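Reading a protein record of the kind used here takes only a little practice. The record below shows the convention in full:
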Amino acid sequence: MNGKVAYDPAALCPVLKQEPKTIFHLRIAASCLLLALLFMIFARALMLRRRGIDAFVRGPQYTAFGIYYLVFTYAVLACSFAWPFPTVLGQALWHSPALSWAGAVLCLAGVAGYALCMTSLEDSFRIGIDENAPGRLITGGIFGYSRNPLYLSLLTEYLGLLLVFGNMAMAVNLGISVFLILRQIFREEEFLRQRHGEEYAAYCRRTGRFFGRH
């Protein structure tokens, strides 16, 4: 014995004692994918900043969104590493390796989809509606198959997290995110309709809001 105590999440959180190791490892993987997504967002924002473009739109509602998603990120990490978190929200509703594997695949697909979106958006990538310098209308790449692939990628990621963690925190987040994303989509559509006129109208006619080409 060298006197060192190995890190044991189950010892810190009795709930984790019920978890198969496969589920615990998939939760760690899902957490890492979420952190990778956040890293991509901030890395792209920093890249654009160096070109004189501010990717983060300022405003009270966007500040509130930012705070919410910081809390959500903490919730994911807390459920993975047994950090302090309300038991009623963190308690797993199911313990299914099959669902956890499916969720991990969805998380990976969501992060990959988001990366493809950022590649297609180039300098037009924004978090929020930039009324002053929105960039050009992007209709090619992955945006040729969906007008909102970025939001679909986020929802895919959040659905994957729900399947991996299987708790109320992820279920509540998915519900809130669906509401916020739909609200943002409708606001963006109205802005783009006013900004780009017939060009955007033609884009809407040939490309579905979520899936498909007409």
About this structure: The CA atoms of residues 9 and 82 lie 6 Å apart.
